[in-house]
Write a structure and sequence with these properties.
Mean pLDDT: 81
Radius of gyration: 35 Å
Number of strands: 8
Shape: elongated
Oligomer: single chain
Number of helices: 8
Distance between the termini: 117 Å
Order of helices and strands: HHEEEHHEHHEHEHEE
Low-confidence stretches: none
Strand order of the largest sheet: 5-4-3-6-7-8
């Protein structure tokens, strides 16, 4: 009797399991829809920009640049030289009258190259920039676009001011904290974003 019961139960279990159907999980990756969703999600992850916070310079106390001090090193743009000549202002003397301190005008290779490209009309400016009073900075990058070169230098080194009359360049410099801008106004040099601008006209 016992053996016949065991046989019956085995048959019943076999039938029961045979009757059950295997169902694939709807989230299984074998489904084409799930594969497409996974591909879209991977693309979305690739498209997202990695958020980077630029490290602020140790020379800045909030927006106050503590590396600025006499003798002031002033990076000169191409059009600033032309405006100074047009207004008959001696560059070194005009800077000293504005800041009441010793000033060292600094010229990059890009600025000199731009003045040389402008032709014979700007030969006076080119000759002026090559004088011994102007400090020359070598450029290691490709091209001769002075604006990008000046922006790159002031973001790396906070010991410079920038002398320019170009509106677009001024707008770009204002985004860099702690960098004063010198320009020509009322036939003399004036300075912007400088805490101690004693000689600048109001």
């Amino acid at each position: 009797m016992g053996k016949s019961r065991n046989k019956k139960t085995q048959k019943f279990v076999k039938r029961k399991f045979a009757a059950m159907k295997k169902i694939i999980n709807p989230k299984d990756m074998r489904f084409k829809e799930n594969q497409e969703k996974a591909a879209k999600a991977a693309k979305a992850r690739e498209g997202k920009d990695v958020r980077q916070v630029t490290q602020t310079s140790s020379a800045l106390f909030f927006k106050y640049n503590m590396q600025l001090g006499p003798p002031y090193r002033i990076l000169i743009d191409t059009n600033f030289v032309n405006f100074a000549i047009r207004n008959k202002i001696d560059i070194v003397q005009g800077m000293m009258d504005c800041l009441y301190a010793k000033c060292i005008p600094v010229v990059t290779d890009c600025v000199v190259a731009e003045l040389e490209k402008m032709g014979s009309q700007y030969r006076v400016a080119c000759r002026l920039v090559k004088e011994a009073a102007f400090e020359r900075l070598p450029c290691l990058h490709k091209g001769t676009y002075a604006d990008d070169c000046l922006i790159e230098r002031i973001t790396r080194h906070k010991c410079y001011m920038v002398a320019t009359c170009d509106r677009d360049l001024k707008r770009r410099i204002r985004k860099v904290p702690g960098v004063p801008i010198m320009y020509v106004s009322q036939h003399r040099f004036t300075i912007e974003r400088m805490p101690d601008d004693f000689g600048a006209p109001r």
